[in-house]
Amino acid sequence: MNDQLDLLIIGAGPIGMACAIEAEKTGLSYVVIEKGVLVNSLFHFPTNMTFFSTSNLLEIGDVPFISHTEKPTRREALEYYRRVWQSWDLKINLYEAVTEVESRGDVYQVTTSKQVYHARHLIVATGFYGKSVQMNVPGESLPKVRHYYEEAHPYIGQRVLVVGAANSACDVALETYLKGAEVAMVIRSSEIYPRVKYWIRPNIENRIKEGSIKAYFNSTIKEIKEKEVVIDTPEGEVTLANDFVLAMTGYQPDYSLLEKVGIQHQDDEYHTPIFNEDTLETNMPRVYLAGVICGGLKTNKLFIENSRVHAEIIVQHILQGKSVPSH
């Protein structure tokens, strides 16, 4: 592309799409680029996942989201955001990963796996689901170890060890158990995460209490082998026969992309990216953050419903033509 854009948006999740909608409304020239599929993070959620949010809290662009139940499903969300794309005729290029970003005066040159863009403003709205948190234990690279979970069917009749105690881990443990897997859990803390979905937590706690799912609290994985897993527990080392390890250890932003852009982060426990909280402009002039990536490693701070407003804030700041120093 030789034409200069007003705005290049990196990430075609719900918030990136919301930014595109604001650009459409205000007449800014823009393109959205996405390394994977439309709403790539949602696509990689478990097949049978149910959102904690209600459908109206997931809406963008004044397109109604009607779900069959109070809590929409992953499938309904994928269909909804596809309809949003079509309704607004958004300019989105899929399967296009950023490889290089250069600042050239008042224009950014962004090279992707397919072409080169020139844009005066950038928005990074890549979420945090693209990179899993590693356990850093021997054997983690074995094929039987999965950091992403799709559905229970592959684990029928298998000995499954689920790592974690938050929503994803509890969902996975229950679903695989109900489909006939022999399930155990390894949990660093002394209890199930307190903020697990209210309709899930009693179920998982009761399965643990009755012994249907064996939980090792205050424990960690020491080593993963082809047919076994070694666990460090308060009572000593335990070796379990095992077919699959489902490591629901969480996800984190792609900091390598932020580094390519030149976005710095604070020296805090969450590696919070540096940006102006009023405008969402980063330490790089005319480069903005939008959505859950603003929370850095604190991935439970921002969601679709409380970061939709980022799109309007950023586009209005672009239209004002200001460049407020970040802090």
Task: Write up what this structure looks like.
This protein folds into two domains: 198 residues, FAD/NAD(P)-binding domain (3-Layer(bba) Sandwich), CATH 3.50.50.60; 114 residues, FAD/NAD(P)-binding domain (3-Layer(bba) Sandwich). 24% of the residues lie in helices and 24% in strands. Strands 1, 2, 3, 4, 5, 6 and 17 form a seven-stranded mixed beta sheet that branches. Strands 8-15-9-10-11 form a five-stranded parallel beta sheet, covered by helices on one side. A three-stranded antiparallel beta sheet has the order 12-13-14, with no helix packed on it. Helix 4 links the parallel strand 9 and strand 10. It is globular and about 60 Å long. The chain starts with a strand and ends in a 7-residue tail after the last helix.
Number of helices: 8
- Report Rg: 21 Å
Give the total of domains.
Answer: 2
Amino- and carboxy-terminal Cα gap: 33 Å
**Biggest beta sheet summary:** 7 strands, mixed
- Give the low-confidence spans: 322-327
The SSE order reads EHEHHEEEEEEEHEHEEEEEEHEHH
Q: CATH superfamily of the largest domain, please?
A: FAD/NAD(P)-binding domain
Mean pLDDT: 94
Total number of beta strands = 17
Q: Strand pairing plus helix content: what structural class?
A: alpha/beta
